[in-house]
Amino acid sequence: MLFSMPVAALRWHIVLLPQRLIFQLRRLLSHLLALPFHLAHRTLVWRFCQCTDLWIATIYLAAKEREKAQKLAQQKKAAEASSRLSSGASTSKKGGSAKKSGSAAPVRSMDTRALDLSALNLNPQDAAPVVDELPPKMTIAREKILEEAAKALEGKGQKKTVSLVVIGHVDAGKSTLMGRLMYELGKMDERKRIANERASGKIGKSSFSWAWEFDGTTEERERGITMDVATQTMMTPNKQITILDAPGHKDFIPNMISGASQADCALLVVDSAVGEFEAGFQRGGQTREHLVLVRSLGVAQVVVAVNKLDQVNWNQTRYEEICNLLKPFLVQTGFQPMKTSFVPVGAMTGINLVKRDQEEAAPLEAWYNGPTLVDQLDRLEPPSRDLTAPVRFPISNVYKSQSSGTAVTGRVCSGVLQVGEKLRILPGDETAIIKSIQTEAESLQWAAAGSNVTLYLTAIDPVHLNIGSVLCPINDIIPLATTFTARVIIFDIQVPITAGASVSP
Ligand SMILES: Nc1nc2c(ncn2[C@@H]2O[C@H](COP(=O)(O)OP(=O)(O)OP(=O)(O)O)[C@@H](O)[C@H]2O)c(=O)[nH]1
Ligand SMILES: [Mg+2]
Fold it and tell me: Counting atoms of ligand 1 from 1, which one is nearest the CA of 211?
């Protein structure tokens, strides 16, 4: 393409221009010769001139014809190339969102440098090759995954994984507690701490600086409340814990439920300040509501962090009062006393999270010598996981990432899945292929029951992916049902519900 113009110009100067000059010279010569003999040899000379003209014109036309033929051949070649390209484009459309994801995995590679598309007047965008995406293949035998997953469950060679939803009344200090814990465990560095402290101070929200580790959106930071579940991973001596920091405000209960539905255990944070604990624990308070919700979603173990004890001067009586109010309610909600534990903490100052050797911890040290919060979390036991059952992956969130395409997040409830596996999306008839599996920390080849992961999918249009849909194996889908039994939890109602009453979801 770059060289086609100079070559054409060169051809014109080297071949055609001299020919035209010769043509003009011969014409002049023939006229000069013809003049003296004009009358006598008029016919003869005229014919000679005509012949000369014809000869030169023939050469000129032949050159022109050759040039035209070459151009036509190029056009034909380019048209063939273009039709091959458009057939490539239609193949990628079949792949649905795969093309839109913009991920770099070209299916066809065509050497466009060899093609001269100039004659087609295509602009560069039209001529660009359409990038298609080859779905990855399954590479690991199912038996091998099952073997490795079983080893991980037993904690052989690696830490057991547990997911933990952080719940409690609004402003109990959930995000502050988790942010500070990240710092104490070395997951948040000093630079980040200082940056959060400065930036939160600038907008007059310095008391929320620890919470900023989890409250990441501008709106959350400006309003000083958590609105959606934020996820991070932390390591305790024996466990790898996925933290799901849920919102406490009642407006965001659906988001809290989405977090709780992905959790094995719960960390309930309560504010020990006088009047604050009571506000969360009374009817309609989120301490009560969250506990009922997590239990009904299958969570059986709960750690209660009694927070903000600095506000009551680390008063032991207040701590015990709170524990005594909560214990019967926990039993009533369905938590076994064996599976509940209590720990006094000061989230802001980091007291009794990982250690309590700070000066400010002295009043607590005077009456408490039990485990720290991390000790308690390290004792959480993951529930049994059904590895051999068919895959069930309820979608908690759907989004489109610029680099990797369509993504769904959630927890593998049962079975094992791997990169390259084709899954059915229920309800509906659509299928998708797993392009990659990600956790917060790493990229995986496979994931097993109990893992909270992000699946990047290919060969699916994102319109078919909805929160609440379930991914299943294509040959082992959730059976269809015409009736089902639901357990409905009713919180505050004004009028009693009677048989036959119509309800809206
Ligand atoms: N005095 C004192 N204040 C605390 C402590 N922990 C948290 N706070 C304050 O409590 C307020 C609320 O903290 P957050 O961490 O945002 O509370 P939250 O439970 O995450 O709130 P939502 O997620 O919106 O329900 C902030 O102003 C914190 O500074 C503590 O140990 N002592
Ligand atoms: Mg919060």
Answer: 15
How far does the centroid of ligand 2 lie from the alpha carbon of residue 171, in Å? 7
Ligand 1, atom 7: closest residue by C-alpha: 173
d(CA 364, CA 319): 11
pLDDT in tens, 63-91: 555 555 566 566 555 555 444 433 333 33
Closest CA to 283 of 489, 497, 494, 491: 491
The domain locations on the chain are 2-86+108-125, 142-378, 393-473
Nearest ligand by distance to the CA of 248? 1
Q: What pLDDT shows up at residue 331? A: 97
Residue 170 CA to ligand 2 centre (angstroms): 7
How far is the centre of ligand 2, averaged over its atoms, from the C-alpha of 202 (Å)?
Answer: 20
HSE, CB side, 13 Å, CA atoms: give it for residue 11.
Answer: 12
CB 345, CB 166: distance < 8 Å: no
Superfamily covering domain 393-473: Translation factors (2.40.30.10)
DSSP E strand boundaries for 174-282: 230-235, 239-245, 265-271
| CATH of the domain spanning 142-378 | 3.40.50.300
State the SS3 of 234-256. Answer: EECCCEEEEEEECCCCHHHHHHH
pTM higher than 0.85 for the full model? no
What letter represents residue 285's amino acid? G
